[in-house]
Specification:
By secondary structure, the protein is of the alpha+beta class. Helix content is 15%, strand content 40%. The N and C termini lie far apart (52 Å).
């Protein structure tokens, strides 16, 4: 009997490049991009040190298409996935192994910018506080765009409900 195991990666970082969306010959969407994570610490002699790690991320199918639409270089992202190792023969004939994170889910953090709003303005600062996160698998049902005056005038008659 196999023992239980877990291969789970959780990252919060910034995209290092725009996602590259491609399709396999049989039509499956695949998207690759990079994420950088940082950490800093203080040494015993009081020096502040920083370390940056770069991660290769791969998304498949619908998730890949969402990444291609929603993500851009520099955006902050929370992602979950699993780590995989892949070997291949390079152009120089040498065997190479790379680590990739196959993404299962993600949330994009707002960058505080809106279309038509300049960075640094009061509206931009409000947008940074209230910018919603986007999760492809955990999105709240969106409300149909109805003008405010129409919503206020509507009332539900209990006799109109069919059940």
């Amino acid at each position: 009997m196999a023992s239980r195991s877990l291969n789970r990666v959780i990252l919060i970082g910034n995209l290092t490049r725009d996602p590259e969306l491609k399709y396999t010959p049989n039509g499956t969407a695949v998207c690759t991009f990079g994420v950088a994570t940082n950490r800093s610490w203080t040494t015993q002699d009081g020096q502040t040190k920083e370390d940056t790690q770069f991660h290769r991320i791969v998304a498949w199918q619908k998730l890949a298409e969402l990444c291609g639409k929603l993500l851009t270089k520099g955006r902050k992202i929370y992602l979950e996935g699993r780590i995989t190792y892949r070997s291949f023969v390079g152009k120089d004939g040498q065997q190479r192994t790379i680590a990739e994170i196959v993404m299962d889910d993600f949330i994009v953090f707002g960058d505080g910018k809106r279309m038509g709003v300049e960075a640094g303005s009061e509206e931009s600062k409000d947008a940074a506080v209230s910018a919603p996160a986007v999760s492809p698998t955990h999105q709240a049902p969106s409300e149909t765009a109805v003008p405010e005056e129409t919503k206020a005038d509507e009332s539900v008659n209990p006799e109109d409900i069919p059940f």
